[in-house]
Design a protein that fits this description.
The chain is α+β, with helices and mostly antiparallel strands. It has one domain: Cytidine Deaminase, domain 2. It has a five-stranded mixed sheet with strand order 2-1-3-4-5. It is globular. It starts with a helix and ends in a 13-residue tail after the last helix. Bound molecules: tetrahydrodeoxyuridine. Tetrahydrodeoxyuridine binds next to helix 2.
């Protein structure tokens, strides 16, 4: 089984647990960290809508809670006609823990796949270097 299939299966499984009474749009995310371990997350909505969290944020939180901080590959899956792109906030969250060339696969349940790199998701990303003073 290829690495991407492993991430796809993990993301599909956790997607089933998404708590989405408001949007009814289930999203699953799986990432591989530097140790090789896989961490997963699903979206968790809230009646106060802005308090909901995305699947990507959940997977990243699980990784950090386990003591890791380096993403080596990530996959996001949803049941949408075209592969679901991470929201702007999640792009910044991913960039915090993944190098520019890390692959992020956007997947649909219908088999659609789009492979992107972190630098494609967030060109011109704000980084720690921007806080250096001249
Ligand atoms: N959502 C994610 O979890 N990840 C994405 O990449 C896009 C959007 C969630 C947030 C909300 O629960 C639902 O999808 C609809 O926006």
């Amino acid at each position: 089984m290829s690495l991407c299939d492993t991430l796809y299966d993990a993301a599909c499984a956790v997607r089933e647990n998404a708590y989405v009474p408001y949007s009814r749009f289930q999203v699953g995310a799986a990432l591989r960290a530097a140790s090789g371990k896989i961490y997963v997350g699903c979206n968790v909505e809230n009646v106060a809508y802005p308090e909901g969290t995305c699947a990507e944020a959940g997977a990243i939180a699980a990784m950090v809670a386990a003591g890791e901080t380096v993403i080596t590959e990530m996959l996001v899956v949803a049941d949408s006609p075209t592969p679901v792109p991470p929201c702007g906030g999640c792009r910044q969250k991913i960039a915090e823990f993944a190098a520019a060339d890390v692959q992020v696969t956007l997947a649909g349940l219908n088999g659609a796949r789009q492979v992107m790199r972190v630098e494609d998701l967030l060109p011109g990303a704000f980084g720690a270097g921007h806080m250096d003073r001249a």
